[in-house]
Write a structure and sequence with these properties.
This protein is mostly helical. The protein has nine helices and no strands. About 5% of the residues have low confidence.
């Protein structure tokens, strides 16, 4: 008798483990109902947009951060010998945000130093704008995705409460499963998308700040070059 009970318990336990192992993300999403599926689909689109922006900006900023350690020495040599055209050609060949600022400053040589500084600052704002293109969208997704997930949570709770109200006093956990699946899956999905987007945004901000610092350093070095006595 005891052996039979143990065998039955073992079979039930193995069936439960088997059912647990077959539970998949796809099944969770499908069991969440139409409302949950729509929200999950929206979050997947936001994740795809966030990944695209991140990798596009990452490679763009990486290309912009490449600098030639001998660049300013060559600029110094060209400017000190009055070879402004050669200096402009060098800036065009380097083709980086810092070289664009230097090229703008070279084109203003002969004018008051304040005008040169203003031209460099204006060019710098444009370069920073190019570096930060679409990065703010990542911040928006990082903030909006969890809220969209919480919206799914509210929808799921409404569905669950509606089922309870229509149950006529006979509450079954299966009856509430759609609402609970919607609430839980959308919350998890929203948090995942939000966390990924937030990390991506901060990483791009850090890399952008490094490029901006490099631009400022080379601009100051160029202005110091113009202030040097002939």
């Amino acid at each position: 008798m005891l052996l039979t009970i143990l065998q039955d318990s073992g079979e039930q336990l193995s069936e439960a483990v088997s059912e647990e192992r077959t539970l998949s993300i796809y099944k969770l999403i499908m069991d969440g109902g139409l409302g949950g599926q729509i929200i999950i689909a929206l979050l997947v689109v936001l994740l795809a947009v966030a990944l695209y922006i991140y990798f596009e900006r990452f490679f763009a900023i990486k290309a912009a951060s490449k600098t030639d350690s001998n660049f300013m020495n060559q600029i110094r040599d060209h400017v000190s010998h009055g070879k402004l055209d050669s200096a402009k050609v060098l800036c065009a060949q380097v083709n980086s945000p810092a070289s664009h600022l230097i090229e703008k400053g070279i084109s203003r040589i002969g004018k008051p130093l304040a005008d040169i500084n203003t031209a460099i600052e204006n060019a710098g704002r444009l370069e920073i704008y190019k570096l930060e293109k679409n990065v703010s969208v990542l911040a928006t997704i990082a903030g909006a995705a969890p809220m969209i997930g919480f919206l799914g949570t509210v929808i799921g709770m409404i569905i669950a409460i509606h089922e309870i109200a229509n149950a006529g006093g006979q509450i079954d956990i299966k009856m509430l499963s759609d609402g609970l699946y919607t609430a839980m899956t959308t919350t998890v999905a929203g948090l995942i998308v939000g966390i990924i987007s937030y990390i991506q945004y901060n990483h791009l901000v850090v890399r952008t700040n490094k490029v901006v610092y490099e631009m400022e350093a080379k601009s100051v070095e160029f202005l110091d070059l113009l202030n040097e006595p002939i």
